[in-house]
From TrEMBL, chains A, B:
The keyword Protein transport does not apply. GO terms for molecular function: beta-N-acetylhexosaminidase activity. The active site is at E335. It comes from Umbelopsis ramanniana AG. It comes from the Eukaryota. This is Beta-hexosaminidase. It is an enzyme of class 3 (hydrolase). Its EC number is 3.2.1.52. Keywords: Glycoprotein, Glycosidase, Hydrolase, Signal.
Amino acid sequence: MAAAAVSGVTAAGQHDQTVVGLPASNPVKQPWVWPLPQKWERGTSTLKVNENIHFDFESHNTILSKAVKRYHNLIFQKDDYPMIPYNWTTTDSHARSSLSSVYIDIRDKSDHLDMDTDESYSLTIPVSGKAIITAKTVYGALHAIETFSQIVQYSPGLHSYVIPNAPWKISDYPKYKHRGLLLDTSRHYYAVKDIEKTIDTLSWNKMNVLHWHMIDSTSFPYKSKAYPQLAEKGSYSPAHQYDAKTISGVVQYAKERGVRVIPELEAPGHSTSWGYGIPEIASCVNHVPYFGYTVQPPSGQLNIAKNKTKEVVNKIIDEWAELFTDSFFHASGDEVVMACWTNDTIVASYLKEHNMSVTELFQKFVLDMQDHVRSHKKTVMVWQEMLLEYQFPLPKDTVVQVWVGSSGVKATTEMGYKTVVSSSDYWYLDVGYGKPRSNPYPDVAGAGYNHWNRVYSYDIRANLTKAEADLIIGGECTLWGELADHTNFEGKIWPRASAVAERLWSGYETPSGENITSADAILRLLPWRDRMLLRGTMASPLNQGFCTRNPLDCFQPPE
Amino acid sequence: MAAAAVSGVTAAGQHDQTVVGLPASNPVKQPWVWPLPQKWERGTSTLKVNENIHFDFESHNTILSKAVKRYHNLIFQKDDYPMIPYNWTTTDSHARSSLSSVYIDIRDKSDHLDMDTDESYSLTIPVSGKAIITAKTVYGALHAIETFSQIVQYSPGLHSYVIPNAPWKISDYPKYKHRGLLLDTSRHYYAVKDIEKTIDTLSWNKMNVLHWHMIDSTSFPYKSKAYPQLAEKGSYSPAHQYDAKTISGVVQYAKERGVRVIPELEAPGHSTSWGYGIPEIASCVNHVPYFGYTVQPPSGQLNIAKNKTKEVVNKIIDEWAELFTDSFFHASGDEVVMACWTNDTIVASYLKEHNMSVTELFQKFVLDMQDHVRSHKKTVMVWQEMLLEYQFPLPKDTVVQVWVGSSGVKATTEMGYKTVVSSSDYWYLDVGYGKPRSNPYPDVAGAGYNHWNRVYSYDIRANLTKAEADLIIGGECTLWGELADHTNFEGKIWPRASAVAERLWSGYETPSGENITSADAILRLLPWRDRMLLRGTMASPLNQGFCTRNPLDCFQPPE
């Protein structure tokens, strides 16, 4: 029995754009937009899109002016031989009118960006006349333009860009406020252009947070004004550093794309690299066998008994609080090994002298550090260990990031904390590549590869009460840097981070209560991956080229 | 206890090239050459290398002339801030003389390349005077130049390229004759420049076979002269084809780098794409549910009952026998599903009429096909199913490629067949990325990710008698194309294929009987990955940057 007879699809004759791929009676019940908009209506007409299309808005909006320039390039890009044959163009001969203008109406003129920024928008594309975007903020308008850009297709038949299925009426908003990616620039350094490229792709996926894990044990790329020796001695080289100007540039670049940059100050664990520039503030630097002092070489934690340590850390916080304009600041706190401190003679003497346990001193250090962050009117984020492992009395305004498996989400929300979900068993994008070291070191997070479908399948609300679920402010996928660098980071992030993006933006059900399934999603994710490729993002393939052309055959075999 | 005290390594102060990384008393007992040469002697002197170094040889050797030009560029490349600090340059101040000339002596003037080509060479670099390369063939000389290129390092201290540890005396030859990579250009198409880049990197790793899996069910990119409709209808697009001129160019490109190109004519399974151009020669094209007719969508096998099928296949064999000048020809034969044929009315009638079983007809088809390959004086390669699953009476000169797990090697060699090892559980480079499809389809090869150390750990001689082991002519790692394409193929292949390369070239013991261990290998593989990067190959990282700088700390923790 041939597939054509069952599903309406024929794969015979790969070149004929009118018969390959999705059939004219489009079985894809959702628009080819990623992430899926909350509400949409569409028609059956095809509009041509004028390549000189005009975006009409108040001209002093510089964020919008720049965005429109970018999108002019992004919209009018074509692949002469796309893997996705644009079946929508089968209605080409009926294309009636041409769209020449998009009016953008923004209510709130402020360009302030934080977690509570209103990102909603509506987009209307009539069969004739102007398209209209309305949004509360410029950031909603950016999302609207992105959605618009994804609706435009190139029609080989008409030798023109077209909008199929007009008229369109989209009303959209995110389910979760915090939609992010963690990038680790310590284990391997990323050039600014790689970070910017990542911000671009985040914004296309309507993600709004770059969690910048800048420093770690392996290298200290931050060029501090107060303590330049930290980068001088602790970075991989003078070419592997981020100075204030660079960071401000990245923050501004991100803001113009609706992306917040949240810095993570990794401390007091994973801190070997601080000790290269200022040896006195570090304990157990390069102690061997490492395994006794750290979960991963090299060993080294901040010396929590010294005032100098607090002085240096506070100064870096002061500098970052200014450079990173976002209202969130990640104060870290993960993976310390007590033996690093108990074997440090200075720490040991201090504990004895003050009759304190090492955990008490650790608690004092991190709570003081977090208070210093709060003194800059920042919301403190921490890793789950602070709460679940060490059970420190964190103020209730602390945002806790869960990473050790998915069970942590229940625990943190049960305790009433706002939670960001990064469960390693679903949303770690760096794992599954085996043990990067010889014995006796354990695997990184010990997890298998998280295939896109597994990433997408993760219901971050599982087993939660309504009240608990409401405490989830969003999530982040992570690309830790052991086995990722310039050569492979984009393919590891994309398109899997897109799966996270859709769950955090679109959620798990449509507003009318219909489940959003991976079987539906793959039909949109395949062309979305191709569009990201066309835009220059090296997103990995999801399946053989045949499946991209004939998704119903590969992904929805009739029973 | 600081690492420095134990291993001689200090990681304190990352920028100081004299103290970071491997200590001056080089603990790496093997030269930084990949794959490891069979025999080497080295000294303690440092030579400068003249950037106008002259390679002296008979000028009419065009392969050598071109190689020398290439290597002039490859040798004199530097990374201003390499992840591997060249500790060898700690002897900079003692650099005495400058090397300006390499004399190349080739005994055999023929440039014929096949499995039995002598690839051995010797390389001598004295403390003063000319370096000397001797080789039986130009292909041995190419390997010698590659080895030479890897011995040259840039010294930041001397602002010069240097050869450390002179004098050198290397005598080298491969343990196995067949050292290859399979590239699948059907599931995803690769541009010629990607194939050429792969050939480049193969040659740097002293690998000598590109197994070109050109066609499969998903697309038919080969532009046949006799049957142009096969590519016209069966390729992904006119831009996704290989014509005769392109193929000859690739074969010549490879030959100039000592790499043989062995074509695989996938038949009669995995053959849907033939049916797009010539429907009458295919059975069960796009039958659903696919799972009953194929191991992977789309379904479709050659119609083994029709004369026309034989006619087309033989014609393609004729064309390929000429285009692919190598003496090997892969006649495939894997993964057929009998139900595809037994449900085909034409095949079923034929079987009834001739009173044959489907297996008998299948056997006749493949043995006839193999005979036709032999009529071109080619050695026939097949997949293991031909022998181990279907137990067809293959002539003893057939080379059998094992892929279904490692146990097949024992089986094929026990039966006395020359064997190429590609066991999926060790040497498949495409697996480990989860199920690329929804249920009910099985995972690709069902295997986990093969980490470099697992790849390297595979002893292809395990459990074999001496006589059986002697039947192994070599091996191939594979990059099947479900989840690999232009965006990620290099990072999936390299540096893991380098691990295969070393096992096949250097073997498992040195000529003096010492085991070649992964603990030794990683110290050479880290800089080799960095050198491949410098040459433009997007090889994936093996561990955090810190570990590249301080390999003894990450990979050889003192007990």
